Amino acid sequence: MPEKEQGLESENPKEIEHDLTSQNENETQRSNRVISFKTFYLSVGAAATLAALITLGSVWILNQPGDSANTAASGYQDLLMEESQEKRADSSSDRTDRHEDRKVVSSVSKKYVATAFAIAKDGYFVTNNHVVEDCSNLKLKTKTEDGKWVDFEAKVILNDTVSDLALVQVMDSTFTELGVLPFTFSSKGAQMGQDVFTLGYPKKDVVMEPGTISSTTGLDGDTTAYQLAMSLNTGNSGGPIFNTKGEVVAVVKGKHNGKEGTGYAVRVEYMLDLIEEFETENSIRLKKPRYNQIQYKSRVNQINHIRQFVFLVEAVK
After folding, report:
1. pTM over 0.85
2. Which of 155, 202, 292, 302 could form a disulfide with 184 if both were Cys (CB 3.0 to 4.6 A apart)?
3. Among the CATH numbers 1.10.1740.10, 3.90.650.10, 1.10.3720.10, 2.40.10.120, which is that of 114-316?
């Protein structure tokens, strides 16, 4: 009897040890699975957090000053009118084999319309830089007394991206000198509350629009421009702003598309600086107006004298 009991006692520890080992292995496997799941969810969570941070960071960057997205978000809009698109098909082939299929490359040219006005009787005009930049063809157009359009080939001779102004010269042999300009350029600029008006081409005819200088700075405190209480539309870019004396005080350049009736115009002193720069660089003097012939005339008579010096700009880009 003592021997049998001893034998039974010697087998039990092995069975217990085996059971404990299996139990430990199962617990280890479960633990590993838990750790794996935790690692997986932690990895997914970290990735999601990183993606969210990147997205928020991108939004923040896009809304910083100077970014193109911020320009659109600010509400500023230039007043260049897109008139039409023209498709050009250019055939080309790398081989002379007549059986070879010729490659046809299509490109699209867009025609834009805006406004320019004479600053000298011998074919010099001012408009906005954004109107003429990167254009492949430039024309200035005006209507005759019988309502027919006459157009002249022109080119950009000087531009300034900061003030958004450009000087344009008529290069057409059919162009003859304009009469003496009846208006002059203000040497004092404009004051807040001052009544003004513009002439421009928001449609296929010259349009007068009255308004007021509502601020002596432009969008976001822009010191090169005035803010206008004036209804402006695409096609008005480059139009002159006149005071009640018939003096040019600014040049239309844009509007606020989030605030109805709010426009912006470049101060006349920046236009005068551009003219002076051109004259100095080329050692010439433009035939600018010296005397204001319309300062004592009614608004209607002023417009009748001015309108023939305000042209439609047609730029192909």
Report:
1. no
2. 292
3. 2.40.10.120
